[in-house]
C-alpha cells in the first residue's frame, strides 16, 4: 500500500495563502499555516481510518527545512517532529 504524504510549504508573505499539496497536486489553500495543518491532519486521519493507508505530513520551516509533523502528538499544530532530509 502506498504512503500518502501531504506537504505544507513555507509562505513568507504575510498576505499570501498557505497551500496544502499531495505531491504536486494542490489540495487546498488556507489563510493561515495552522488551518492548512489542521486540514492535513483531518485528511490523514480519514485515510488511516477508512482505508488503513499510511499517511504523513511534511511542513517546511522558514529556513527551507522539511520536518515531519507529529500527527499523533500534541505538537502537530506546530509542525514539529523529526527532521526530514
Helix count, per DSSP? 1
Question: Tell me, what's the shape?
Answer: globular
Order of helices and strands: EEEHEEE
Number of domains: 1
Task: Tell me the Rg in angstroms.
Answer: 12 Å
Q: N-to-C terminal Cα separation, in Å?
A: 23 Å
Q: Uncertain segments of ≥5 residues (pLDDT<50)?
A: 74-85
Q: How many β strands by DSSP?
A: 6
Largest beta sheet, briefly?
6 strands, mixed
Strand and helix layout:
Elements: E1 4-8, E2 18-22, E3 25-30, H1 33-51, E4 55-60, E5 66-68, E6 83-84
Parallel strand pairs: 1-4
Antiparallel strand pairs: 1-2, 2-3, 4-5, 5-6
Describe the overall structure.
The protein has 85 residues and is α+β, with helices and mostly antiparallel strands. The protein has one domain (4-73). The chain contains 1 helix and 6 strands; from the N terminus they run E-E-E-H-E-E-E. The chain has a 6-stranded mixed beta sheet with strand order 3-2-1-4-5-6, covered by helices on one side. A hairpin with a 2-residue loop joins strand 2 (18-22) and strand 3 (25-30). 15% of the residues are buried. Mean pLDDT is 83; it is low at 74-85. It comes from Luteibacter yeojuensis. This is DUF2188 domain-containing protein.
Amino acid at each position: 500500500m502506498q504512503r500518502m504524504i501531504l506537504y505544507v510549504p513555507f509562505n513568507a508573505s504575510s498576505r499570501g495563502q498557505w497551500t496544502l499539496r499531495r505531491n504536486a497536486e494542490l489540495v487546498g489553500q488556507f489563510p493561515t499555516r495552522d488551518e492548512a495543518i489542521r486540514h492535513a491532519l483531518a485528511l490523514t486521519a480519514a485515510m488511516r481510518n477508512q482505508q488503513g493507508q499510511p499517511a504523513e505530513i511534511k511542513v517546511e520551516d522558514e529556513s527551507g527545512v522539511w520536518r515531519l509533523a507529529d500527527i499523533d502528538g500534541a505538537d502537530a499544530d506546530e509542525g514539529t517532529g523529526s527532521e526530514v532530509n
